[in-house]
């Protein structure tokens, strides 16, 4: 038990150090013009193409999102939100209470992983939440950062779905993603597939989707 607590403290300390490195870049990124800040997205993509990894550019990418959020949303992510963003990027679960800013927290790892050009899925529990984020201020933040944003709904035709799946950021419910996956495995021709290769997903209310709804065959 003692070793478990020590491991937790060590993990938190590492997250705090990384988050502080992001915060320490605030003045550097605040000095950039909107155009210079937006150009960071292409700069990061070029660094990745030249052999750097997502972890190599994480600090600067998160600092970019943090400053963009300040300008577009008039909200600046706190240190604890940056820590949560790192946790999500590393493929772990970040537990946050209502009002602690989990929506803004998710923007940072979504942006970082979208830089690979392979798409990021943000999975919500209902259509209302997916539409609110994709067509609202969060969607505007991604667009400011030169990323494309798509909304996957049941009303879309296969051709329209194919187009939204090409977006850098795709908002969708877990049900719609699941049914698209099943339909893709029933097509006759490869050209009829709507989803592209799966890359990175952020699941909102993950306990509800992967535990409460685990009894659903689709999930």
Total beta strand runs: 4
What is the CATH superfamily classification of the largest domain?
A: P-loop containing nucleotide triphosphate hydrolases
N-to-C SSE string, H for helix and E for strand: HHHHHHEHHEHEHEH
> How many H/I helices?
11
How much of the sequence lies in strands comes to 5-15%
Q: What is the oligomeric state here? A: single chain
Task: Give an overview in words.
The chain has helices at 2-23, 26-30, 34-49, 54-72, 79-89, 102-114, 127-135, 137-144, 158-164, 174-184, 206-212; strands at 120-124, 149-152, 169-173, 200-203. It is α/β, with parallel strands linked by helices. The chain folds into two domains: 1-115, P-loop containing nucleotide triphosphate hydrolases (Rossmann fold, 3-Layer(aba) Sandwich); 117-218, 3-Layer(aba) Sandwich (Rossmann fold). It has a four-stranded parallel sheet, sandwiched between helices. α4 (54-72) crosses α6. It starts with a helix and ends in a 7-residue tail after the last helix. The mean pLDDT is 92.
Protein topology:
Blueprint: H1 2-23, H2 26-30, H3 34-49, H4 54-72, H5 79-89, H6 102-114, E1 120-124, H7 127-135, H8 137-144, E2 149-152, H9 158-164, E3 169-173, H10 174-184, E4 200-203, H11 206-212
Parallel strand pairs: 1-3, 1-4, 2-3
Helix pairs in contact: 1-4, 1-5, 3-4, 4-6, 4-8, 5-6, 7-8
